[in-house]
Design a protein that fits this description.
The complex is a heterodimer. Chain A is about 15% helix and about 35% strand. By secondary structure, chain A is mainly beta. Chain A folds into two domains: about 5-205, Collagenase (Catalytic Domain) (3-Layer(aba) Sandwich); about 220-320, Immunoglobulins (Immunoglobulin-like, Sandwich). In chain A, helix 1 packs across helix 2. In chain B, strands 1, 2, 3, 6, 7, 8, 9 and 11 form an eight-stranded antiparallel beta sheet that branches. A two-stranded antiparallel sheet of chain B has the order 4-5. In chain B, a hairpin with a 7-residue loop joins strand 6 (about 105-110) and strand 7. The longest helix of chain B is centred in the last third of the chain and has 13 residues, at about 185-195. Classes of the chains: A mainly beta, B alpha+beta. Chains A and B meet through strand 3, strand 8, helix 2, strand 12 and strand 13 of A and helix 1, strand 5, strand 8, strand 10 and helix 4 of B.
């Protein structure tokens, strides 16, 4: 049964990464047109967590997204099921599955789409029970926090792509996440922390862009413009808007060959803009790499402070970057 | 001066926390954790129902130009989540998609008779493009690798991290293959866990 519809779009138009998929020459944006999202939870324990604990944790994570005051979303727990996540069976299922072969994937979200009608037939969240999980209020050493990961995956389920507002570090021959200012950063931090349960300005702006309410339209503003290099547009540049008054960071990307970007959901006030390439790995976590993402330029601050009006936008900002070589 | 102040401001507002899906790998981990490392061009992508018709996966066949690891054969087939069968399409967020004609260096995990899969969902995909200006084949995804033993932040925009000509990328792969087997991912993860407990 169709649970929702997706909008058809010729190209991604604004900030954040909204989920979409190519169908022939179209881009289908993955977005629920009918709410609440009705979901099942697998009736199975995994990674040290019971099915009931999973149900409650998933409900908490949904509630965190639904509490955003500038977006309208809702969900409904239908019941437990014996169906597995990742089964293409018409049910939206969230649950554990033991996939030791995917030893670097904590969880993943997938969609099953009718490419003719554009309907989302189902969405699934798979949580890898080959890892150890925790639902403890303050986290547990050596266990990943289930609510943090569920929050990230539900962000996908609601239509958000990954955010690049994070930083990694090389240390002792390995790589780990050092910091992030979003729950939608695509890489895991460490076990034992519950900080990923808290949405950040970037997450709130992203979801509000997909499911805006009147408050969002009235209270928030935007910055739009182009990133250029040697007079040509840069595709896939990461643009970060830093609110000098609140300290909030909200990121976006240039999403076409002309280097155009829009960052919405900004609080009114002066902003500093920084542009950087996605040259620290994992581009495929952000973009379909059949696109020609440009990583060959140096990071740069825009040379002017950009003031965002409440409920309006500052347009035609051009940020010129230089090639690395 | 002004830039450095702004950099400091941005860093101040990037508190230490994070989330979620993937456990990121350093380049030498990707190399040591892959049983097949092959450069070539995708010749076929075929979606099929798998696991008793429960899910859709795609079998991607690459015509090999060169092998950096693994037994050289003419073509290699590996699987990725998702794909389209008729009017229905299954999409997994973060999973790579391929089209016939795509050129890439692929780092594949292969265990026994199972069909290989990409290292770390998407971390083992390094696409190759022809640079319009120079005509050279470039590996577009920059390599993330440590320069020394000291902790090192992977700052975006670093001058040394850029698309590499294919032959330079191949040299980096070969150099990484010379590193000791202690780089294999489970050992690193174990060390990392111990470090986090302290």
């Amino acid at each position: 049964m169709a649970l929702a519809c997706v909008a058809l779009a010729s190209q991604p138009a604004s900030a954040y990464l909204k989920l979409g998929t190519r169908v022939d020459t179209r881009t289908v944006t993955l977005q629920w047109e009918e709410l609440p999202v009705r979901y099942f939870v697998t009736d199975a324990a995994g990674g040290g967590v019971t099915a009931a604990q999973l149900r409650d944790t998933v409900a908490d994570a949904f509630a965190t997204w639904h509490a955003i005051s500038t977006a309208d979303t809702s969900s409904e727990f239908v019941g437990f099921t014996n169906a597995r996540p990742n089964d293409d069976d018409g049910l939206t299922v969230i649950g554990f599955e033991n996939r030791p072969d995917q030893d670097r994937t904590l969880g993943a979200t997938s969609f099953f789409v009718d490419t003719i009608s554009g309907e989302i037939l189902e969405a699934e969240i798979f949580l890898n029970s080959s890892f150890s999980w925790s639902v403890a209020a303050s986290g547990e050493a050596n266990r990943f926090d289930l609510e943090s990961i569920a929050l990230h995956e539900i962000g996908h389920l609601l239509g958000l792509g990954h955010s690049a507002l994070g930083e990694t570090e090389l240390r002792d021959g390995g790589r780990r996440v050092l910091a992030a200012e979003t729950v939608m950063f695509p890489v895991a931090y460490s076990t034992g922390t519950i900080q990923g349960r808290t949405l950040k300005a970037d997450d709130i702006a992203g979801l509000s862009d997909i499911y805006p309410n009147l408050d969002h339209r009235r209270q928030r503003g935007s910055i739009s413009g182009r990133v250029t290099k040697s007079g040509r547009g840069v595709l896939g540049a990461h643009i970060v808007a830093f609110n000098m008054r609140t300290g909030q960071l909200i990121g976006g990307f240039s999403l076409d060959d002309d280097g155009r970007f829009v960052i919405g959901g900004l609080e009114a006030g002066p902003h500093v803009l920084r542009v950087e390439p996605l040259d620290d790995g994992d581009i495929e976590s952000f973009f379909d790499l059949t696109l020609n993402i440009d990583t060959n330029f140096s990071a740069k601050f825009h040379d002017r402070i950009v003031v965002v009006p409440r409920g309006g936008g500052t347009n035609n900002v051009e940020i010129r970057v230089e090639p690395k070589n | 001066m002004r830039s450095s102040v702004l950099i400091a401001l941005l860093l101040c507002f990037t508190p230490s926390l994070s989330a979620t899906v993937l456990l990121p790998a350093e380049f030498r981990e990707i190399v040591s954790g892959s049983q097949i490392i092959v450069h070539g061009r995708v010749s076929d992508v075929r979606a099929e129902w798998s696991d008793g018709r429960r899910r859709i996966e795609s079998l991607v066949t690459i015509e090999a130009s060169s092998f950096y690891r693994g037994t050289p054969v003419r073509s290699v087939t590996f699987r990725v989540p998702g794909g389209q069968i008729g009017r229905y399409k299954s999409v997994t967020v973060g999973a790579p998609e391929f089209r016939a004609g795509d050129e890439a260096v692929l780092f594949l995990r292969s265990q026994g008779p199972a069909v290989p899969q990409v290292f770390g969902l998407n971390q083992g995909v390094f696409r190759v493009r022809v640079d319009a200006r120079s005509g050279r084949r470039l590996v577009t995804q920059p390599i993330v690798t440590a320069r020394g033993a000291a902790p090192e932040t992977v700052a975006r925009g670093a001058r040394e991290r850029r698309p590499l000509p294919l032959e330079q990328f191949a040299a980096q792969v070969r150099a990484a293959l010379q590193w000791p087997s202690s780089w294999r991912s489970p050992a690193w993860r174990s060390r990392a866990s111990r470090r986090r407990r302290t």
